[in-house]
Amino acid sequence: MLNSLISSIKRWRKPGRSSLPRIVARSDHNLSRRDISRAALTVMKRLQEAGFQAYIVGGGVRDLLLGGHPKDFDVATDATPEEAKKLFRGSRIVGRRFRILHARIGREIIEVTTFRGHHSEGEEHEAQQSEHGMLLRDNVYGDLESDAVRRDFTVNALYYTTDGFEIHDYTGGMRDIEQRKIRMIGDPATRYKEDPVRMLRAVRFAAKLDFEIEDKTAAPLEELAPLLRNIAPARLFDEVLKLLMSGYGERTFELLQRHHLWHHLFPDNAAMLDQPAALELSHLALRNTDQRIRDDKRVTPAFLYAALLWPAVYSEQQRIAGKGTPPVPALAQAAQKVTGSQLAHTAIPKRFSIPMREIWDLQQRLPQRGGSRAQRLSEHPRFRAAYDFLLLREECGEIPPGLGQWWTDFQQADGEQRQEMVRKLQRNGGGNKRRGSRGGRRRRPRAEQKSQ
Ligand code: ATP
Ligand code: MG
């Protein structure tokens, strides 16, 4: 391993590449062992004591160099998953496309990956590529250098070791951290074809770090964006959550549009964005989500998906209702259609799609407040989300303001005041707007029907 490292260093030190690999000494970087989780340090120590190399790599190093707080630490090693597994009781090897070890230290799980090699050197059962150039399997092992060039972006390919406290940079990641650039390692188009999710990752890191996507890295995005269709909807759903629910959703939304990726993720939302209210609703929902994450409040994909798909659902409902279907079944049909078409792009697990539909259904019921309806509605498990959603619809100008304020007051009122609010509504002839919301096709009372 050491020999191959030395020979690779010699190879890279040819004129023109003289600065790589760059080994940044302890005194020349601001990364400290104290910033790294105890579990990750334990994993590194145990691997090193068993004679293996061990480095922190990826987001852990990148975010610490930028003064941020990494959400986790990943370890790269020359131990195979099986060799590493022996060192950690209760650890598990997971993944097919990439086999990695989940090392359990106390309550923390540290992902340990074996240095990857060049997949062209592997057997078919170790590395496999689809007709589109997509990597189906990538389990050929290699050394630190080959591992570095298999990673996606230069800023994600910095390796820190407690054995000497140095940072190893094979791809120019230190320079790109300084210049705030997301740069693909190798030929961007080839790397996107190997794994189209890298297109989303480029945007995600640019938004999160407030970095620029370097020109050559950005150039193929528009043309290759349709490759996202080849990604399993379940994986895309996970990516969407990372894109939109990590605290930088609004900026990510803008960047995904700018790089022509958005309409491959949310085509039904994208098709509505030329309408100001739809664009505004999407922005507001993402901005709220970002704010709630900053405030450590709970966020749910159900609400965000409800907001992103609503403009299409609402317009489809109006189209169906225009043909004479009453609004309630029209909404159900519209919801079914739009949800179905979204599922072909990103999965929506049932635990989110059911509350999403409830938020939509409640939009029809919130105007109907007569009798004991308001009280019952306010006790609905999805009331709060539906109310927040109603406020967004008013704020973006989709519906005129008023109803939201009524519900705000209702929630703050005591029992007596609530009854008075409902009485007042009925005196003014409101509160049971079933008729109005049926699109004018009022069902005749039974007696009237019989008399004909
Ligand atoms: P964060 O965890 O903050 O979202 P990260 O950079 O740690 O960011 P992970 O998804 O945790 O991202 O992946 C860890 C590392 O694995 C990355 O930094 C990168 O080096 C490598 N990696 C992850 N996904 C890919 C991919 N699709 N192609 C190539 N390398 C990847
Ligand atoms: Mg990570």
Question: How would you explain this protein's 3D organization?
Answer:
This protein has 452 residues and is an alpha+beta fold. The protein has two domains: 1-179, Beta Polymerase, domain 2, CATH 3.30.460; 263-427, cca-adding enzyme, domain 2 (Orthogonal Bundle), CATH 1.10.3090. Helices cover 51% and strands 10% of the residues. An eight-stranded mixed β-sheet has the order 1-10-9-2-3-6-5-4, sandwiched between helices. A two-stranded antiparallel sheet has the order 7-8. A hairpin with a 5-residue loop joins strand 7 (127-129) and strand 8 (135-138). Bound molecules: adenosine-5'-triphosphate and magnesium ion. Residues 58-59, 72, 74 line the site of magnesium ion.
Helix count, DSSP H or I runs of 4 or more residues? 24
Spatial strand sequence of the major β-sheet: 1-10-9-2-3-6-5-4
Task: Find the structural class using helix and strand composition.
Answer: alpha+beta
Strand % is: 5-15%
CATH topology of the largest domain: Beta Polymerase, domain 2
**Shape estimate:** elongated
Q: State the helicity in percent bands.
A: 40-55%
Output the CATH homologous superfamily of the largest domain: Beta Polymerase, domain 2
List each distinct ligand once: adenosine-5'-triphosphate, magnesium ion
Structural domain count? 2
The level-1 CATH class of the largest domain: Alpha Beta
The CATH architecture of the largest domain can be given as: 2-Layer Sandwich
Number of strands: 12
Q: How would a textbook summarize the main sheet?
A: 8 strands, mixed
Any idea what the radius of gyration is?
A: 27 Å
Arithmetic mean of pLDDT: 90
Low-confidence stretches: 1-17, 433-452
Q: Could you give the distance between the termini? A: 94 Å
